[in-house]
């Protein structure tokens, strides 16, 4: 089983739509979770950290379910500029802190 | 806004040559990393560096790879004898004290021919 699994997409949605991405992770000892955004041939950029209580940043909402080892990202009112690949990222605990494990990413295409 | 900077943005090298990729992490950050991304694949961890030593490395980071922080600002990745399969985007990242989230530089695209 992959350490971090995501649906690769692409998700094609019209502007204004709500879209949700899911991610599962295999290591139950993982403690830190993030969503990064990556534009084509660019660096990953931190979108938001994910907390057990869930957190929201404008149009973006992230949720964590530790029991199911499941992370989600909801984007409301999609903009053209949201088109990118969304990377689910989990830290690998033990043997050295702050080692991030990336999913393969879910590609989002927002069309006019 | 502080950022991680990397040079060069693109490097083309012949197989067997040595390359050095350079990074300037965010100035008050303490933890430094190299990741790589082969075209079309996921971002993969290479190595983490703290307190002037490697804290962890992946199985990819073999004897051909080394890292160094030669002064207070630069952080380098050296590949001693490049192979075709080393062609990838190499990202430097850094994170601050007590923080897990890492901030990435814009990457160096390494092409081995």
Quick recap:
The complex is a heterodimer of chains A (112) and B (113). With 112 residues, chain A is mainly beta.
Please, could you describe this protein's structure?
The complex is a heterodimer of chains A (112) and B (113). Chain A is mainly β and 112 residues long. Helices cover 0% and strands 53% of the residues of chain A. Chain A has strands spanning 4-6, 11-14, 19-25, 33-38, 44-50, 55-57, 60-65, 70-75, 84-91, 100-102, 106-111. In chain A, the strands form 2 sheets. In chain A, strands 2, 4, 5, 9, 10 and 11 form a 6-stranded mixed β-sheet that branches. Chain A has a 5-stranded antiparallel β-sheet with strand order 1-3-8-7-6, with no helix packed on it. In chain A, strand 7 and strand 8 (70-75) form a beta hairpin. In chain B, strands 2, 4, 5, 6, 9, 10 and 11 form a 7-stranded mixed β-sheet that branches. The mean pLDDT of chain B is 94. Chain B has 113 residues and is an all-beta fold. In chain B, strand 4 (31-37) and strand 5 form a beta hairpin. The N and C termini of chain B lie far apart (36 Å). The interface between A and B is medium-sized, with 24 and 23 residues.
């Amino acid at each position: 089983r992959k350490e971090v699994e995501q649906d690769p997409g692409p998700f094609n949605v019209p502007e204004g739509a709500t879209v949700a991405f899911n991610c599962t992770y295999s290591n139950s000892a993982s403690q830190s979770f993030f969503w990064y955004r990556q534009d084509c041939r660019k660096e990953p950029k931190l979108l938001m950290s994910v907390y057990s209580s869930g957190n929201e940043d404008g149009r973006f909402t992230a949720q964590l379910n530790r029991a199911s080892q499941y992370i989600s990202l909801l984007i409301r009112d999609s903009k053209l500029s949201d088109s990118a690949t969304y990377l689910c990222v989990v830290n690998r605990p033990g043997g050295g802190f702050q080692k991030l494990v990336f999913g393969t990413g879910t590609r989002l295409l927002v069309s006019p | 806004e502080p950022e991680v900077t990397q040079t060069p943005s693109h490097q083309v090298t012949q197989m067997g040559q040595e390359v050095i990729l350079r990074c300037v992490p965010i100035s008050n950050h303490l933890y430094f990393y190299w990741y790589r991304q082969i075209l079309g694949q996921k971002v993969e961890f290479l190595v983490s560096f703290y307190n002037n030593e490697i804290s962890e490395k992946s199985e990819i980071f073999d004897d051909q790879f080394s890292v160094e922080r030669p002064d207070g600002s630069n952080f380098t990745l050296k590949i001693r004898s490049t192979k075709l399969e080393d062609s990838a985007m190499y990202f430097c990242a850094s994170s601050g004290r007590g923080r897990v989230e890492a901030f990435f530089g814009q990457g160096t695209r390494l092409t081995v021919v």
